[in-house]
Amino acid sequence: MCENDETMRKRRVMKKRVTSDTELIPKLGRLGVLSALIFTFGLALIACSGGSETDDGASAPARASSSAKATADEDHDHTSEHANTGDGYDGPYPIPIVATTGMVADLARNIGGDHVSVSALMGEGIDPHLYKASPGDVTKLRGANLILYSGLHLEGKMADVLLRLARRQPVYAVTEELSEDLMREPPEFQGQYDPHVWFDVSIWSRCGEFVRDLLAGFDPDHAEDYRGSAEPYLAELAALDQYAREQIATIPEEKRILVTAHDAFGYFGDAYDIEVIAIQGISTESEAGVYKINQMVDALVTRKIKAVFVETSVSDKNIKALIEGCRAREHDVVIGGSLYSDAMGKHGTQAGTYPGMVRSNVDTIVGALK
Ligand SMILES: [Zn+2]
After folding, report:
1. CA of 153 to the centre of ligand 1 (A)
2. Alpha-carbon distance 274 to 313, whole Å?
3. pLDDT of 127-168, one tens digit each?
4. Span from the CA of 133 to the centroid of ligand 1 (angstroms)
5. Which of 2, 123, 192, 216 could form a disulfide with 223 if both were Cys (CB 3.0 to 4.6 A apart)?
6. How far is the CA of 241 from the centre of ligand 1 (A)?
7. What is the CA radius of gyration of the chain?
8. Could you give the CA distance from residue 39 to residue 169 in angstroms, rounded to a whole number?
9. What percentage of the chain reaches a pLDDT higher than 90?
């Protein structure tokens, strides 16, 4: 046997997904299809690592699959040639994993425990929408036995690098198996999904389940350990989800409006019942025009909004323009605090973990608006 049941099940699921994603080409854009291909290809490589050498992402799953069948059908003396067949992973421990964002790394670290060594490319204050992989990053990525990224176009400028790497290495988006009905698709995002899913903690914990199942399939020898570490981590996320809901509910309803620099908090708003108004759209790539700033000044003056928030990974230039605009109309607005939107805080601090970053945001928002 080259594949365990779990991998087989996933591959069947992904086969279906690729078909449906292909139908969604215009809707999802290139990376949606790309990540489906990357995902399926990654699974195929894991299913039969040490098997076929492949160089073509699109046809690889079929080829790796037929190679797996051939191995299984041949006589059993080939086990030395395919020493890892059936084990899934025969590389070094701890398994070198490279993640793009800190939030993705946090999932892998907590669920992988001692069996993995995780590094994140993007540290504190880094904007993933604009991030380009440096030559050093590419070296780091090549050295990884597993690459994890957030997906849904978040790492928009890394798509080509990820595709290239996926030809030789397992590369996965942790959002890959999220069902479409969980995702926001606001009209201003022009047919793309909102990638900031980590701000609905219940959705991010599904990404945690994905990482748990992925690691268990990737390294079946330690599958029980991964399931064991995932349990308290996912329980912590469930408690965090509850905390956010309860805390935001303490803000009087008329004051429950979150004004931010870019639209990272849509899921947060939906999940925890707070209205969100952002100057920039889905990605920090688009510049907010004077018209948009003036529109927002109107909204703040009319609705008597007293506090706006800056983000650690986005320039505060637009927020400052907003405050100036309000002042010119004799309405005082203060900066309510700094929120962690697309990057966690400094490693070793409370906000340097995913649960810590969410908690810090909730406390900052409640402290300023209540
Ligand atoms: Zn963002």
Report:
1. 10
2. 22
3. 999 999 999 999 999 999 999 999 999 999 999 999 999 999
4. 17
5. 216
6. 20
7. 22
8. 11
9. 65
Q: CATH number for the 5-73+84-241 domain, one of 3.40.50.1980, 3.40.50.800, 3.40.20.10, 2.170.270.10?
A: 3.40.50.1980
Exposure string for 211-235, b = 16+ CB within 10 A, e = fewer: bbbbbbbbbbebbebbeebbeebbe
Span from the CA of 342 to the centroid of ligand 1 (angstroms): 5
Separation of 265 CA from ligand 1 center, angstroms?
9
pLDDT in tens, 137-147: 999 999 999 99
Prior bond to 252 cis, omega within 30? no
Determine the distance separating the centroid of ligand 1 and the alpha carbon of 48, expressed in angstroms. Answer: 36
Q: Class for domain 249-369, per CATH?
A: alpha beta
Q: What is the pLDDT of residues 183-203, one digit of tens each?
A: 999 887 778 999 999 999 999
User: pTM of the full predicted structure?
Assistant: 0.77
Torsion sign, CA atoms 34, 146, 44, 70: positive
For residue 162, the CA-to-ligand 1 centroid distance in Å is: 19
Helices (H), 192-316: 201-218, 223-248, 266-272, 290-302
CA dihedral 350, 356, 359, 360 (to 10 degrees): 40
CATH 3.40.50.1980 domain locations along the chain: 5-73+84-241, 249-369
Confidence of residue 94 (pLDDT cuts 50, 70, 90): very high
In angstroms, the CA 46 to CA 7 distance is: 8
Residue 129, classed as helix, strand or coil, is: coil
